[in-house]
């Protein structure tokens, strides 16, 4: 008969996770956006592709977690690096199920919810608690990171389900998930379980962070503030580094708080830093957004129903709106292929990939079915041009199919 007693604790092994304060939640939300944006940057902008990016991020996460598990106490910089990396890998897991295997978001959300329940059940049966204030043994920390990984996968699936499958969009996503977090906080204040409300809020911060990131990055014609992924990531990263650096300095100066003690630096001071970080994101975001000239480039799409100088006036036949900016890139790529300049076409098609990927969060919720049709046709174009031995006939055929679909959707 096996026992469920915890392994002996070392007197020098302190709590391995931060005290839950306002600063904790601000860093958590911001790190979600940075993690997702960085993965997209590697896969699309750098050109590594989803497969290589997935393998690379899993490998880096394994190294980071090894360092984290070898630590004897909470170390802010490695802990939050692990959170960012888990955010990336958790998102990649959900995207693999949805985009590669074609699993419905309803199914994946349900599967990850059940998997999280299994992790919690095993954790509780072994340790008798799910409180993160008691993460002070190797086994408890393994359970903790397993739960964190599944919460990110679940949060991604649930967020995509709400904003994409249910077509709520990222603007409504900010309001909905933000409201649910506020409701969770109020429930805690009214006496709900601290452990339960913590994990509920932890799951909800994933879709909130993604929706907030989309709100800042998407072009104004798609309902965002038009900062772009790179500028938003830098803004968030600066705030994260400032808050984590403060945590690191406090740990170095005062040591790590024992289980059950108050937050380092005092609650009021911590709240001040958290509010300051949140305000900095909002104010700087609005200032930077106001200083940027609205774009009508293909990377952002154009105002639905508006005509462009690239071609005749369009009359959109789907909720996706005016797609003529994408058609302009396709026409340019077709020109290279017609001259059998497949190298030039391969270079040119990168513009289409970047434009389509950048506009995904704004376009997909409008009409998920037609978006997926175009997404599949764009993938066919990319695959044919990036084949080890591309042929003019295959590339031309796939481009013609995509061009015709875009024209049909634009009503020209």
TrEMBL record:
Membrane-spanning intervals of the chain: 12-30, 42-65, 77-97, 103-123, 143-162, 225-245, 271-290
Organism from which the protein derives: Microlunatus antarcticus
Source superkingdom: Bacteria
InterPro entries: DUF347
Protein name, per record: Putative membrane-anchored protein
Coiled-coil positions: none
Pfam families given in the database record: DUF347 (PF03988)
Keyword entries, A-Z: Membrane, Transmembrane, Transmembrane helix
